Amino acid sequence: MKHTISVLVENHSGVLSRISGLFSRRGFNIESLAVGPTENPEVSRITIIADGDDHTVEQIEKQLNKLIEVIKVKSFRPSDCMARELMLLKVSATAEKRQEIMTICEITESKVIDLTVNTMTLEICDKYDHLVKFVSLLEPYGIVEMVRTGTIAIQRGNETITK
Amino acid sequence: MKMSASKAMVECLKAEGIDTVYGYPGAAICPFFDALLDEENTIRNILVRHEANGGHAASGFARMRGTPQVCIATSGPGAVNLITAIATAYADSIPIIAITGQVATEQIGSDAFQEADITGAAEPFVKHSYLVKDANEIPRIFKEAFYIAGSGRPGPVLIDVPVDVQKAMIDFSYPKSVKIRSYKPTIKGNFMQVKRVAKALKNAKRPLICIGGGVFASNACEEVRKLSEIMDIPVITTMMGISCFNDEDRLFFGMIGTHGVKSANAAANDCDTLLLVGARVGDRAVKTPLALEESTTIIHMDIDPAEIGKNIGTDIPLVGNAKDVLSQLLEQVEPMKHDEWVEHLEKYRKPRKFPKAKKGTVDPRQFIEKLSAAMPADTTVVADVGQNQIWAATSYKLKPGGRFLTSGGMGTMGYSLPCAMGAKMACPDRTSLQICGDGSFQMQFMEMATCVQYGVNVKIVVMTNNRLGMVRELQDIGFNGRKVSVFLDGSPDFVKLAAAYGIPAMRVTDTRSMNKAIDALAGEDRLMLVEVCVDEDAPTL
Question: Per the CB < 8 Å rule, is B309 touching A58?
Fold first, then answer.
């Protein structure tokens, strides 16, 4: 089962390697990992999508908490949070296919950010399942290149990671 | 006060009460060694013969003093050599501070001479580590390092200091307190959980306490004794918990595990409620945790929440420092009697009978048992790894006040002599007895020179059978007797080797020489070596 784990860490060099090292040496599977600064420049936030049973996730949380530079660990249930991922995708598109692809963009609320004679580059920000769908819609045209950020997540309502 | 960063590093150690460090110099750590020379009357450096042994010596020192202790190495190979000692300390939760030199800041990442990414390489084995980039951070980093190493679940902390940082001038003042927002170990136990534990123990018909190394780490041996006595609960230990509880106590039933004693394993099998204190249920201590958790109410007390539920399912978790939590528990419990249960366990106690040893050898277990009867009560016994470790763990009958040290978690061969050396320097009034095999001795005998140089009196016992005995036995049992790479042919004459260092030595080959050697080992406190010839086929248990 997939779990979304949010981690607040001190913004020190080497923190990311401590965390990724912990996952690999304890045999935890990371599906995606995204890191960036927060409202406090001293603190970074890491969102990890991990695969495993409840026992594994409990161990992940406890082991993360043992790292000195980890300030807070919280794992979200899918219903408690909103998760997004950014993807840039370059697809083969000759002039006659452009309109079809534009229609897909319109429906999926994605954007065309670059255009050449034979390709279109698209940008989409959505939840994981929608990205999968988006990719499957574009596959018939020929995907030339694709890049994704990894999921970030935030809690619904007034809840925050620290309270 | 303005001073060089290397002098500031020495001031930090002084402020932490460090009087002995175990270091091996090299170019990248020379400024620090130079600053140490100015304070040689306050802090003595012991020049070990290998960096790993410096780490093990600091470990032995730390275990006896109960405070973080320091080992030092230079950059690159020096630092990398230290990793075994860091990993060994990590596995047994021993607080050591490893200080390493690093190439100059502007050279980092250029594959410079003797450059190694030691904070990266040691990352899996440290509680925390620092690469010092700004010399002004040194006082804060040292203060934090000692605090982190010694508090909560103790462990090794690494400080890597580039050589140019050591030479920088800084304004020094040592912080009085530590502020780390993300590190706050739980010390007191949750009151409701303590009550639940008290109730579970009260309702138990066949309760049992199993203690591990965490009881030493929190200095809670006395609290365990009180709990056992008041509630009449039998006690067993893991290997790391040996000497935490009086061997002669009527409620003590020995060491648990695949190489443990029958009475301890039977107690674990037959109990209905098991209180684990500072024990992580390692695979060598409990082979089938699933079976145990199904048949038993498991109460797990540990300062590290990650240990609870990791190896064994728990009915009542209790996070906190053993000494504090047990004191809280003692306020909740009433005297009980479990005569029937204790009598039941008594059946499993059997006096040891030793078979007649082959000509030219003695039974290693008999030797150790007889030796333990003769040694002073407050002897620190340091066992290495292999058959010698199990012989020592199960046959040495500790007297009250005795202490048993070994590399339990990592099982690092070559730990015992440097550890015994550190233990002796930490407590010069106690006898330091080291027990190893002829395999492990050859991983560490260079430290005899250190013992000679600094006058460290260690009683060295080498069990020789010209075999890597533990592996030999495994190959006999598990690989149809196909013995491979376990023959130590080419070993030197250890008595002569000791003589080459100027260390008096004797060999045990029969009862007469055994008695003579035991008299010598139990006698005058001096550096000496006894080689004990044992049967190559002698069993571990």
Answer: yes
Range of the domain at A86: 82-152
Look up the CATH number of the domain holding residue A148.
3.30.70.1150
Compute the mean pLDDT over every residue in chain B, rounded to the nearest whole number: 96
Q: What is the pLDDT of residue B352?
A: 80
Closest by alpha carbon to B473, among B441, B508, B442, B437?
B437
Interface mutation target, options A68, A71, A74, A161, chain B, most CBs of B under 10 Å: A68
What are phi and psi for residue B336, nearest 5 degrees? -135, 170
pLDDT digits (tens, 9 = 90+) for A89-148: 999 999 999 999 999 999 999 999 999 999 999 999 999 999 999 999 999 999 999 999
A70 in the same domain as A88:
no
Q: Is the dihedral of CA B64, B438, B259, B311 positive or negative?
A: positive
Instruction: Name the amino acid, one letter, at B310.
Output: K
Number of domains in chain A: 2
pLDDT band at B188 (very low <50, low <70, confident <90, very high): very high
- Inside any domain, residue A162: no
Same-domain check for residues A69 and A104: no
Among partner residues B182, B304, B306, which is closest to A71 by beta-carbon distance? B182
List chain A residues with CB under 8 Å of B124: 21, 25
* Three-state secondary structure string covering B28-41: HHHHHHHHHHCCCC
The answer to whether residue B373 neighbours chain A at the CB level (below 8 Å) is no
Q: Is A163 within the bounds of a domain?
A: no
User: ipTM of this model?
Assistant: 0.90
Mutate to test the interface with A, among B123, B137, B148, B182 (most CBs of A within 10 A): B182
